[in-house]
Task: structure prediction
Amino acid sequence: MPVLPGVVRPSVVARIALLNVVANGLIVVTGGAVRLTGSGLGCPTWPRCTDGSITPTPELAGHGLIEFGNRMLTFALVGVAVATVAAVFLSVRRDLRRLAVLSLLGIPAQALLGGVTVLTGLNPWTVAAHFLLSMVLVAVATVLWLRSREPGVGQLIVRRPLAALVTGIAATVAAVEVLGTVVTGSGPHSGDPGAGRTGFDPQLVSQLHADLVFLLVGLTVALLVALHATDSPGRARRAARDLLVVELAQGVIGYVQYFTHLPALLVLAHMAGAVLITVYAARLVWATRGPASELPVDAAAPVSSAASR
Result:
Protein backbone atom coordinates (compact mmCIF):
# COMPACT_ATOMS: atom_id res chain seq x y z
CA MET A 1 0.00 0.00 0.00
CA PRO A 2 1.51 3.38 -0.94
CA VAL A 3 2.32 5.73 1.91
CA LEU A 4 0.23 8.88 1.81
CA PRO A 5 2.19 12.12 1.95
CA GLY A 6 2.11 13.94 5.28
CA VAL A 7 -0.33 16.79 5.68
CA VAL A 8 2.28 18.84 7.56
CA ARG A 9 5.59 19.55 5.85
CA PRO A 10 8.83 18.62 7.66
CA SER A 11 9.90 22.26 7.77
CA VAL A 12 6.72 23.16 9.66
CA VAL A 13 7.31 20.30 12.10
CA ALA A 14 10.82 21.61 12.75
CA ARG A 15 9.58 25.16 13.43
CA ILE A 16 6.90 23.98 15.86
CA ALA A 17 9.42 21.69 17.57
CA LEU A 18 11.77 24.66 18.02
CA LEU A 19 8.93 26.63 19.60
CA ASN A 20 8.46 23.71 21.97
CA VAL A 21 12.10 23.98 23.06
CA VAL A 22 11.76 27.72 23.66
CA ALA A 23 8.53 27.29 25.64
CA ASN A 24 10.03 24.61 27.88
CA GLY A 25 13.06 26.79 28.53
CA LEU A 26 11.05 29.94 29.24
CA ILE A 27 8.84 28.30 31.84
CA VAL A 28 11.98 27.30 33.77
CA VAL A 29 13.17 30.91 33.78
CA THR A 30 9.77 32.30 34.78
CA GLY A 31 9.58 29.68 37.53
CA GLY A 32 12.92 30.96 38.76
CA ALA A 33 11.53 34.49 38.79
CA VAL A 34 8.67 33.27 40.99
CA ARG A 35 11.13 31.89 43.52
CA LEU A 36 13.50 34.86 43.40
CA THR A 37 10.69 37.35 44.05
CA GLY A 38 9.57 35.37 47.09
CA SER A 39 6.30 34.45 45.34
CA GLY A 40 6.58 30.69 45.60
CA LEU A 41 3.55 30.56 47.89
CA GLY A 42 1.81 33.56 46.33
CA CYS A 43 -0.99 31.09 45.70
CA PRO A 44 -0.85 29.05 48.93
CA THR A 45 -2.73 25.99 47.67
CA TRP A 46 -3.23 23.92 44.51
CA PRO A 47 -4.95 23.50 42.06
CA ARG A 48 -6.87 26.58 43.21
CA CYS A 49 -4.97 29.71 44.15
CA THR A 50 -6.73 29.78 47.54
CA ASP A 51 -9.24 27.47 49.18
CA GLY A 52 -12.09 29.66 47.98
CA SER A 53 -10.77 31.14 44.73
CA ILE A 54 -9.22 29.86 41.51
CA THR A 55 -7.61 33.25 40.85
CA PRO A 56 -5.52 35.42 43.22
CA THR A 57 -7.39 37.55 45.75
CA PRO A 58 -6.48 41.19 46.50
CA GLU A 59 -5.03 40.07 49.84
CA LEU A 60 -2.34 38.07 48.04
CA ALA A 61 -1.13 41.25 46.29
CA GLY A 62 1.72 41.02 43.77
CA HIS A 63 3.06 37.68 44.94
CA GLY A 64 -0.26 36.03 44.12
CA LEU A 65 -0.31 37.53 40.64
CA ILE A 66 3.26 36.40 39.94
CA GLU A 67 2.66 32.83 41.08
CA PHE A 68 -0.71 32.59 39.31
CA GLY A 69 0.79 34.04 36.12
CA ASN A 70 3.41 31.34 36.08
CA ARG A 71 0.71 28.69 36.51
CA MET A 72 -1.15 30.12 33.54
CA LEU A 73 1.96 29.80 31.39
CA THR A 74 1.58 26.04 31.77
CA PHE A 75 -1.50 26.23 29.55
CA ALA A 76 0.53 27.98 26.85
CA LEU A 77 3.15 25.23 27.16
CA VAL A 78 0.42 22.60 26.82
CA GLY A 79 -0.82 24.33 23.67
CA VAL A 80 2.64 24.26 22.11
CA ALA A 81 3.16 20.61 23.10
CA VAL A 82 -0.23 19.61 21.64
CA ALA A 83 0.64 21.47 18.43
CA THR A 84 3.94 19.58 18.31
CA VAL A 85 2.23 16.20 18.71
CA ALA A 86 -0.38 17.10 16.08
CA ALA A 87 2.26 18.28 13.61
CA VAL A 88 4.35 15.13 14.08
CA PHE A 89 1.39 12.76 13.73
CA LEU A 90 0.19 14.60 10.61
CA SER A 91 3.62 14.39 9.00
CA VAL A 92 5.56 11.45 7.61
CA ARG A 93 7.90 11.44 10.62
CA ARG A 94 6.73 8.37 12.52
CA ASP A 95 10.13 8.20 14.21
CA LEU A 96 9.40 11.43 16.10
CA ARG A 97 6.10 10.33 17.60
CA ARG A 98 7.49 8.83 20.80
CA LEU A 99 9.48 11.96 21.61
CA ALA A 100 6.52 14.23 20.86
CA VAL A 101 4.18 12.23 23.10
CA LEU A 102 6.79 12.10 25.86
CA SER A 103 7.19 15.87 25.67
CA LEU A 104 3.44 16.31 26.06
CA LEU A 105 2.99 13.78 28.87
CA GLY A 106 5.75 15.43 30.86
CA ILE A 107 3.70 18.59 31.28
CA PRO A 108 0.86 17.17 33.44
CA ALA A 109 3.51 15.29 35.42
CA GLN A 110 5.30 18.59 35.93
CA ALA A 111 2.06 20.32 36.93
CA LEU A 112 1.29 17.63 39.51
CA LEU A 113 4.80 17.89 40.91
CA GLY A 114 4.38 21.64 41.07
CA GLY A 115 1.19 21.11 43.06
CA VAL A 116 3.03 18.84 45.49
CA THR A 117 5.71 21.53 45.80
CA VAL A 118 3.13 24.13 46.83
CA LEU A 119 1.24 21.78 49.16
CA THR A 120 4.49 20.85 50.95
CA GLY A 121 5.33 24.51 51.54
CA LEU A 122 8.18 24.62 49.00
CA ASN A 123 10.06 21.67 50.41
CA PRO A 124 13.54 22.08 48.87
CA TRP A 125 13.61 18.48 47.64
CA THR A 126 10.32 18.76 45.75
CA VAL A 127 11.47 22.12 44.37
CA ALA A 128 14.62 20.36 43.15
CA ALA A 129 12.61 17.55 41.56
CA HIS A 130 10.37 20.14 39.87
CA PHE A 131 13.40 21.83 38.31
CA LEU A 132 15.11 18.60 37.27
CA LEU A 133 11.99 17.30 35.53
CA SER A 134 11.94 20.57 33.59
CA MET A 135 15.51 19.90 32.50
CA VAL A 136 14.51 16.45 31.25
CA LEU A 137 11.68 18.00 29.22
CA VAL A 138 14.06 20.60 27.78
CA ALA A 139 16.42 17.82 26.70
CA VAL A 140 13.61 15.78 25.13
CA ALA A 141 12.28 18.84 23.28
CA THR A 142 15.79 19.66 22.02
CA VAL A 143 16.42 16.17 20.64
CA LEU A 144 12.97 16.20 19.02
CA TRP A 145 13.72 19.52 17.31
CA LEU A 146 17.18 18.46 16.10
CA ARG A 147 15.92 15.15 14.76
CA SER A 148 13.04 16.88 12.98
CA ARG A 149 15.56 18.79 10.86
CA GLU A 150 17.01 15.61 9.33
CA PRO A 151 15.42 12.61 7.60
CA GLY A 152 16.19 10.21 10.43
CA VAL A 153 18.85 8.97 12.85
CA GLY A 154 21.82 7.32 11.20
CA GLN A 155 24.89 5.49 12.42
CA LEU A 156 27.58 6.61 14.84
CA ILE A 157 29.93 9.07 13.11
CA VAL A 158 32.57 9.39 15.84
CA ARG A 159 34.87 6.75 17.32
CA ARG A 160 33.19 4.61 19.94
CA PRO A 161 35.49 5.74 22.79
CA LEU A 162 34.52 9.33 21.97
CA ALA A 163 30.85 8.40 21.99
CA ALA A 164 31.41 6.90 25.45
CA LEU A 165 33.06 10.16 26.53
CA VAL A 166 30.02 12.09 25.27
CA THR A 167 27.81 9.85 27.40
CA GLY A 168 30.04 10.61 30.37
CA ILE A 169 29.74 14.34 29.70
CA ALA A 170 25.94 14.06 29.56
CA ALA A 171 25.96 12.18 32.88
CA THR A 172 28.23 14.84 34.40
CA VAL A 173 25.87 17.59 33.22
CA ALA A 174 23.06 15.77 35.00
CA ALA A 175 25.15 15.46 38.18
CA VAL A 176 26.07 19.16 38.04
CA GLU A 177 22.41 20.12 37.78
CA VAL A 178 21.37 17.77 40.59
CA LEU A 179 24.01 19.22 42.90
CA GLY A 180 23.06 22.70 41.74
CA THR A 181 19.55 22.15 43.09
CA VAL A 182 21.07 21.14 46.43
CA VAL A 183 23.04 24.40 46.45
CA THR A 184 19.84 26.30 45.73
CA GLY A 185 17.96 24.40 48.41
CA SER A 186 20.65 25.34 50.93
CA GLY A 187 20.86 29.03 50.01
CA PRO A 188 18.81 32.12 50.78
CA HIS A 189 16.40 32.15 47.81
CA SER A 190 13.77 29.76 49.12
CA GLY A 191 10.77 31.26 47.34
CA ASP A 192 9.01 32.16 50.58
CA PRO A 193 10.19 33.30 54.03
CA GLY A 194 8.59 30.26 55.65
CA ALA A 195 10.02 27.65 53.27
CA GLY A 196 12.43 25.05 54.62
CA ARG A 197 16.06 24.53 53.65
CA THR A 198 18.10 21.36 53.21
CA GLY A 199 20.23 22.03 56.28
CA PHE A 200 23.50 21.55 54.36
CA ASP A 201 26.33 24.02 54.63
CA PRO A 202 25.88 26.32 51.58
CA GLN A 203 29.61 26.91 51.26
CA LEU A 204 30.40 23.18 51.27
CA VAL A 205 27.79 22.20 48.67
CA SER A 206 28.77 25.18 46.53
CA GLN A 207 32.37 23.95 46.53
CA LEU A 208 31.28 20.43 45.57
CA HIS A 209 29.16 21.91 42.79
CA ALA A 210 32.13 23.94 41.54
CA ASP A 211 34.35 20.82 41.60
CA LEU A 212 31.88 18.98 39.39
CA VAL A 213 31.80 21.93 37.01
CA PHE A 214 35.62 21.78 36.75
CA LEU A 215 35.32 18.09 35.90
CA LEU A 216 32.68 18.85 33.27
CA VAL A 217 34.79 21.54 31.64
CA GLY A 218 37.85 19.23 31.66
CA LEU A 219 35.92 16.40 30.02
CA THR A 220 34.55 18.74 27.37
CA VAL A 221 38.01 20.12 26.58
CA ALA A 222 39.35 16.57 26.30
CA LEU A 223 36.51 15.64 23.95
CA LEU A 224 37.07 18.68 21.77
CA VAL A 225 40.80 17.95 21.45
CA ALA A 226 40.09 14.28 20.64
CA LEU A 227 37.48 15.17 18.03
CA HIS A 228 39.97 17.43 16.24
CA ALA A 229 42.78 14.87 16.58
CA THR A 230 40.66 12.17 14.95
CA ASP A 231 39.29 14.47 12.24
CA SER A 232 35.73 13.84 13.41
CA PRO A 233 32.79 15.36 11.52
CA GLY A 234 32.26 19.09 11.88
CA ARG A 235 28.86 18.73 13.51
CA ALA A 236 30.41 16.90 16.46
CA ARG A 237 33.29 19.38 16.79
CA ARG A 238 30.92 22.35 16.68
CA ALA A 239 28.61 20.79 19.25
CA ALA A 240 31.50 20.19 21.67
CA ARG A 241 32.91 23.68 21.09
CA ASP A 242 29.57 25.39 21.69
CA LEU A 243 28.90 23.38 24.84
CA LEU A 244 32.32 24.40 26.17
CA VAL A 245 31.58 28.09 25.52
CA VAL A 246 28.25 27.84 27.39
CA GLU A 247 29.92 25.99 30.28
CA LEU A 248 32.59 28.67 30.63
CA ALA A 249 30.01 31.47 30.54
CA GLN A 250 27.90 29.64 33.11
CA GLY A 251 30.95 29.17 35.32
CA VAL A 252 31.72 32.90 35.23
CA ILE A 253 28.14 33.73 36.20
CA GLY A 254 28.26 31.17 38.98
CA TYR A 255 31.43 32.60 40.51
CA VAL A 256 30.27 36.21 40.20
CA GLN A 257 26.92 35.45 41.83
CA TYR A 258 28.65 33.58 44.67
CA PHE A 259 31.11 36.37 45.47
CA THR A 260 28.43 39.08 45.13
CA HIS A 261 26.16 37.26 47.62
CA LEU A 262 23.63 35.87 45.14
CA PRO A 263 21.85 38.90 43.64
CA ALA A 264 18.51 37.81 42.18
CA LEU A 265 19.23 38.85 38.59
CA LEU A 266 22.47 36.88 38.45
CA VAL A 267 20.78 33.84 39.97
CA LEU A 268 18.12 34.10 37.26
CA ALA A 269 20.83 34.34 34.60
CA HIS A 270 22.44 31.24 36.11
CA MET A 271 19.12 29.37 35.78
CA ALA A 272 18.87 30.42 32.14
CA GLY A 273 22.43 29.16 31.72
CA ALA A 274 21.40 25.78 33.13
CA VAL A 275 18.73 25.58 30.45
CA LEU A 276 21.29 26.38 27.76
CA ILE A 277 23.73 23.79 29.06
CA THR A 278 20.95 21.19 28.89
CA VAL A 279 20.15 22.21 25.32
CA TYR A 280 23.77 22.10 24.18
CA ALA A 281 24.50 18.83 25.99
CA ALA A 282 21.50 17.26 24.25
CA ARG A 283 22.81 18.65 20.97
CA LEU A 284 26.21 17.07 21.63
CA VAL A 285 24.63 13.65 22.14
CA TRP A 286 22.60 14.13 18.96
CA ALA A 287 25.70 15.19 16.99
CA THR A 288 27.47 11.86 17.52
CA ARG A 289 25.16 10.26 14.95
CA GLY A 290 24.63 11.37 11.40
CA PRO A 291 21.43 11.54 9.37
CA ALA A 292 19.87 8.26 8.26
CA SER A 293 21.89 8.31 5.04
CA GLU A 294 25.29 8.31 6.78
CA LEU A 295 27.55 5.26 7.09
CA PRO A 296 29.07 4.21 10.43
CA VAL A 297 32.56 5.55 11.02
CA ASP A 298 33.96 2.03 11.54
CA ALA A 299 32.48 0.65 8.31
CA ALA A 300 34.74 -0.64 5.58
CA ALA A 301 33.55 2.02 3.17
CA PRO A 302 35.06 5.52 3.60
CA VAL A 303 32.92 8.06 5.41
CA SER A 304 33.70 10.94 3.11
CA SER A 305 30.26 12.49 3.37
CA ALA A 306 30.36 12.41 7.17
CA ALA A 307 33.86 13.82 7.40
CA SER A 308 32.96 16.73 5.18
CA ARG A 309 30.12 17.91 7.40
User: Anything to note?
Assistant: Residues 169 and 216 are 6 Å apart (CA to CA). The two ends are 36 Å apart (CA to CA). Residues 298-309 have pLDDT under 50 and may be disordered.
